[in-house]
Beta-ketoacyl-[acyl-carrier-protein] synthase III
Amino acid sequence: MTTAAEKVQARITGTGSYLPEKILTNADLEKIVDTNDEWIVSRTGMKERRIASDDETNSYMGTEAAKVALKEASLSVDDIDLILFATVTPDYMFPSTACLVQKNLKATNAAAFDMQATCSGYIYALATAKAYIESGLYRNILVIASDKLSSFIDYSDRSTCILFGDGAASCVVSGSGKGLLISNAALGADGSLSDIIKVPAGGSRKPASIETVEAKEHYIKMEGREVYKHAVRRMEAASLESLRQVGITESDISYLIPHQANLRIIEGLAKRFQIGKEKVYVTIHKYGNTSASSCGIALHELMNEKKLDLGKRILLVAFGSGLTWGASVLTVTDK
Ligand code: UT7
């Protein structure tokens, strides 16, 4: 019988990311739509974003990020039992992008599936991996959160095309080893607001047709102000719930990694929690909003830049279409 003392605790033992080389700057966007650098920077904090080439498919980006995470975790692909791929921009409707990564990595011992939680994808995937590891079903899980949103952007719509970029994040979640304990995961959703940010066509409800293409219904449509309002509320509530679940306060947090959707949202959140600027990890100026991967890319960069002492805590929080939201406290562990 397993005693409480022997309980397996899921932790991240390696992180990785992949960003395409091609940069789309605000100056580039000024040439495409009626916008300007001053508007974009003051309203969003974004200066540039990465755009994947035709060869840089979502499965390719995810595979490259996964290689980095596996190396950091000192695991071989044969050790992986499950590949979990969070995305809203799969290579195909089916097969899953997770299966394409499984093929690329030759991870023949791994089961594989995609999950869809929009911009909250990384945190939803961490929560799922935690549940699988702690139930004893799997020992090592490769989590990937990756999106190629540039394939779903209308580059004549200034209200959305300035916001999004491409990129992938990955991590290995295991039941032992040093890294970051996934101390909790507070997830939530509100499907009654599913219309305020979505891609209207291309699913089984409204399959592709000449009409849907002409009406540009395969691109992201967003009610920006409405989404903004809910993002602020939900990220704040999810953060508070996370702190409550772990039994800590904001002063116990060494770094806050919020979803990188808008610098004003991020700064508002930091202010509410009285977390100083130096503790808020921001990548938005470089990458824009990379959807599912945004928290994971930031986490990988933070882990490579800073040396975090034992017991230090990071708070991840995200929000996206669905609506979905989630927050998770990660705690540095040495065993
Ligand atoms: O990852 C999922 C979560 N996503 C988010 O959390 C995004 C949340 N929303 C936002 O971040 C903001 O709502 C935006 C950045 C998208 C927009 O900022 P805003 O301050 O809410 O602007 P707005 O949509 O209310 O538009 C204000 C004005 C409008 O002009 P009028 O009607 O006042 O004359 C827009 O047409 O700004 C105009 N505008 C632009 N002007 C220059 C909209 N986009 C642009 C642009 N350049 N790119």
About this structure: Residues 35, 39, 43-44, 119, 158-159, 162, 224-225, 227-228, 231, 261-262, 265, 289, 319-320 surround oxa(dethia)-CoA (CB under 6 Å). The longest helix spans residues 224-246. The longest strand covers residues 324-333.
